[in-house]
Amino acid sequence: MKIVVLVKQVPDSGAERNLRSDDSTVDRDSANNVINEMDEYAIEEALKLREAHGGEVTILTMGPERAAESIRKALSMGPDKAVHVLDDALHGSCALATSKVLAAALKTLEPDLVIAGAESTDARGQVLPHMLAERLGAAALTGARKLTVDGATLTIERQTEEGYEVVTASTPAVVSVWDTINEPRYPSFKGIMEAKKKPVQTLSLGDLGIDAGEVGFGGASTAVVEHARRPPRQGGTRVNDDGEGGVKLVEFLVSEKFV
Amino acid sequence: MNFDHTPEQAQLRDAVAAMGKRYGHRYFVEKAKSGGHTDELWAEAGKLGYLGVNVPSQYGGGGGGITELAIVCEELAAAGCPLLLLLVSPAIAATIIAKHGTTGQRERFLPGIADGTLKIVFAITEPEAGSNFHRLSTVARRDGDDWVISGRKCFISGVDEAPLVLVVARTEDAGTGRLAPALFVVPTDAAGLTKSRLEMEIVSPENQWMVYLDDVRVPGEALIGEDTSAGLPALFSGLNPERITAAAMGVGTARYALERASSYVSSRSVWGRPIGMHQGVAHPLAHAAIQVELARLMVAKAAALYDSGRDLEAGVAANMAKYASSEAATLAVDTAIQAHGGNGMTTEYGIATLLGGVRAGRIAPVSREMILNFVSQHILGQDKSY
Questions:
Q1: Residues of B with CB under 8 A from a CB of A
Q2: Domain of B77?
């Protein structure tokens, strides 16, 4: 089975993150850039499938030069090779344009299965897997907390707020996963040392036959008009127990729709 | 001069730190207090190749050096899991066997040390001789093809966890008639080997033992190397890795304590502001942080010198790193406890549990006084004082 895992480099969600003041894109310079957390679960799922069914796992990343660090890190977990779509013209691309570029790269790889994290910690749109499935004419199995493969048949448990749905499709398919699906492995020392020898192919927009005008700010279907920092947390409500504390607590919880 | 890790070393640091955090200090303390061992952590670290980073790759290891092993020791300690046996099995035993063992010994022992399925502990210290091998009284005599070993060892770590112990004994050199050190791989369940536990005031899942060898018979191939001449260089080859990794563990422990203290003083508010905003609280922690970082630099230098084969310089740096690290770790833990007030002595806050360990670090594996003697003699050119 040929599996491609989408890996995005994002600013560490545990630290302070900013948008750039000049063009409202993510400020990568001041951030500690890491693999999007959910993508590690996607990698783990792909590696488990390779262990069970054989095949090959390829990492696909679109991002600036420094995303190469995250690619190496992803490779140290065990995938076979990687493709890095790298082009200065991509800066400022919207989700639609990103899906166009990734779909073009995926067509060159002809995967049976594409696995992605359900969302990235920076944009949190959750839309990319759907867009890719549409562009590739592949099934979209999104938000999985469990994935089983039986020949060309894929079954997922799709996580919802109330429980889960069982959804089935055939390959080719795009599957997106939540962090409930597995426990990602740590890279072994051997994996770390081997990662630098694994092939990483770099593709430009020209290689993919996409015009620079279709992507970046010029080709964006959406624009960030304005942005502001979240207001600082307010002090909260203090309930003093003068005999009616319990009632007041419940009233507060009701007013906030917690109960 | 380059202060950067290679990308692979940086990644190893991240990976070990992430794994260590999942276990954490609470796990370490629970194992210590229940009389258990950190088997799960050891097995996982072994499987991921972290325990064998310095073992040659043809024997299943990572093919790295003491720099990599020091990273593993430091990061596990920084996650609250200062594992003493890292200094013993991968640092001492693997180095001695890789450098001075026979091909058969390398093939037999190194793969297991590398993946963590085999622990080999180390017995040099004696009640009357300390670590001074000139005065060791444990003697091995030849009997046909076998060796028969008798003597007493003390402060031997992890004998209950390891099937094998590397015993430093003395043999009579046939040529000169002088007693020379030799190393033997002895099964811990060998007939004539008995052990008794030393009760220690250190919170650790790894135990200390007295080991008694009463005419313990081992086959000829138990001797490390082709003949007894391998003994002295083999013994020396294990000491620098031990000191460097001990120093790395001290630095990691200190980082753990300072991280706990930093987070505590920035979140605990008295009279309307975090106590960390008071210089009386922050400065001692800042002072300790500087001492720790200085020691950390020396660990990196010692490891780099050792890995580039500059043994004499590495010896000086390893001693200095060990000295600096144990002093800095003791200071950091003490300062972190003080910053916590009464909470600092509770089990819950997980710092006072480190007191015994860092204090012991000023004594073992080599005491601060012996390092000061070494520096007086070899750096300052003074006559030997003992």
A1: 7-8, 11-12, 15, 18-19, 47-50, 52-53, 62-64, 68
A2: 7-118
DSSP B206: S
CATH code (residue B328): 1.20.140.10
In this structure, the dihedral spanned by the alpha carbons of residues A59, A60, A63 and A68, taken in order and rounded to 10 degrees, is 30
Whether the model pTM is above 0.90:
yes
Q: Which parts of chain B register pLDDT below 50?
A: none
B11, B63, B68 member nearest A76 (Cβ): B11
Q: Do B89 and B69 sit in the same domain of this protein?
A: yes
One-letter amino acid of A249: L
Nearest chain A residue to B6 by CA: give it.
Answer: A193
The span from the CA of B154 to the CA of B199, in Å, is 12
- Is this prediction's ipTM beyond 0.90? yes
d(CA A148, CA A179): 16
Residue A197 sits at the vertex; the CA angle it makes with A196 and A203, to the nearest 5 degrees, is 85
CB contact under 8 Å between A193 and B62, yes or no, is: yes
Strand B146-157 and strand B120-123: pairing? unpaired
The per-residue pLDDT for B131 is: 66
Count up the domains in chain B and report the number. 3
Among 3.40.50.2000, 1.10.3720.10, 3.30.1360.10, 3.40.50.620, what is the CATH number of A2-214? 3.40.50.620
Nearest CA in chain A to B68: A189
CB B113 within 8 A of CB B50: no
What's the CA gap between B90 and B84, in Å, rounded?
11
B249-284 per-position pLDDT tens digit: 999 999 999 999 999 999 999 988 999 999 999 999
CA distance A150 to A42: 18
